[in-house]
Structures are given as C-alpha cells and as structure tokens.
Amino acid sequence: xxxxxxxxxxxxxxxxxxxxxxxxxxxxxxxxxxxxxxxxxxxxxxxxxxxxxxxxxxxxxxxxxxxxxxxxxxxxxxxxxxxxxxxxxxxxxxxxxxxxxxxxxxxxxxxxxxxxxxxxxxxxxxxxxxxxxxxxxxxxxxxxxxxxxxxxxxxxxxxxxxxxxxxxxxxxxxxxxxxxxxxxxxxxxxxxxxxxxxxxxxxxxxxxxxxxxxxxxxxxxx
Length: 222
Ligand code: ADP
Ligand code: ADP
Hints:
The protein has 222 residues and is α/β, with parallel strands linked by helices. The chain has eight helices and eight strands.
C-alpha cells in the first residue's frame, strides 16, 4: 500500500496537485475537505457536526475527522494506496494514521510539503473557484478554466467556496498554521518529509513532487 501525504497551508496547491499525481501513480486521492463538503451537502449527521467549524475556518475536531478518514481508507479502491490531501492536519491525526497503517503493515512513504508564503496563499484562495462535482480547483488569474464557469475535467459548474471569503481565509491561516507546523515536525522526525517550492508554476510543482517522491524511494508512475 503506497501512502503519500500532501502537506501545505490552505491555498498552497494541494488540491491542484493531488489529481495530477493520482493520474501518474494510479491511486485515488482522499481529500478530507472534499469529504466534509460532500457530507455537508448531503446533510448527514457528520456534515451537520462539521459545518460550524468549517464556516468559522477552524479545524473539525480530531475524533470526527479520524473516523471519516478511516472509513474512507477501508473502501476497496484504497487498498493499493492513496494520496492524502488535507489529512493529517494535527499531530493527533498523524499519530492515528500511523497506527491505522501499522495495523495493515503499511506506513506513510512520503510526506511532501508544498511550501508557499502567506501573502501568496491569500491571493490564491481569494481567486479560487472549484467544481461542484469533484472540487477540482481553478484560479481566476493564474489557472483559469478553458470555458468560464465550467470545469475542464468533468464539465460541472464552478463556484466560490463559502470559506474562501477574506475574513475566513485569515481565520484559517491563524488557526491552522500552528497545527501544520506540528504535522511537519511529525514527518521530519520519522524521516519522510520532503519540501517542494510551491511558488512555481503548476507544472513545475508537479515535476518537483515527482523528484521528491523518487528521492523518498516512492516510485512515480509505471
Ligand atoms: P484548503 O483546500 O483551503 O486547505 P480543505 O478543503 O482541505 O481546505 O478543508 C476545508 C475545511 O475542512 C477546513 O478549513 C477544515 O474546517 C475542514 N478540514 C478538512 N480537513 C481537515 C482535517 N484533516 N482536520 C480538521 N479539519 C479539516
Ligand atoms: P489547497 O488544496 O492547498 O488549498 P488549491 O489546489 O485549491 O490549494 O489551490 C489554491 C488556488 O491556487 C486555486 O485557485 C488554484 O487554481 C491556485 N493554484 C494552485 N497551484 C498554483 C500554482 N502553482 N501557481 C498559481 N496558482 C496556483
């Protein structure tokens, strides 16, 4: 089981890179933000519990998040491996993931940090549009869709996320960056952390991620 963790602040480009990498490695993306948004949309109990945290830019409590992630990992399409986007986001989540993988005789093969300075994160989130069907992200300036308002990949409508408003963007940065630091330390300690410069173009970041994975001994496609 190949498990790759994509780390980065909100807006760093994880959701952009994850599907590109998934196509190269032929394993699915598991994005907890997308799972939470689907639960909110479907009006499930979990979605109702998560919504107020998401709207406030806060992390959803670990207990709820770990449960959501473990249920997703138990599905058959995750058996060969997964690319995790947006999980783990706290040290508690990172430890829970390590335990769950150890039970299957697996471990995180690489944790790739997409590193982007704060002012660029704000620019990215303020211009972000995502698709209704799968959350594929676009940017009105740096990464526009071919047809305005329509996803290139699945043709669904694009919208701006409720939490991509200036006040919530600032709250997310204030509240989530400290926890990200702990997750980075977790993977630095276990020796699987690799950092790529996320300020480059989308293609250059993708190439840098491939190099980082090769260095970590997690083979790229093929
Ligand atoms: P971004 O793409 O801006 O990084 P996400 O789509 O990953 O944001 O997440 C949106 C929101 O969902 C977060 O602000 C948080 O409220 C919640 N969330 C997603 N993943 C996690 C997680 N691993 N732990 C706690 N909350 C999470
Ligand atoms: P995350 O999932 O880490 O929150 P996204 O992948 O949604 O981040 O990217 C945030 C915004 O920045 C989106 O509007 C996306 O189109 C844009 N973006 C992503 N990568 C780049 C890049 N390398 N250069 C410029 N803009 C980017």
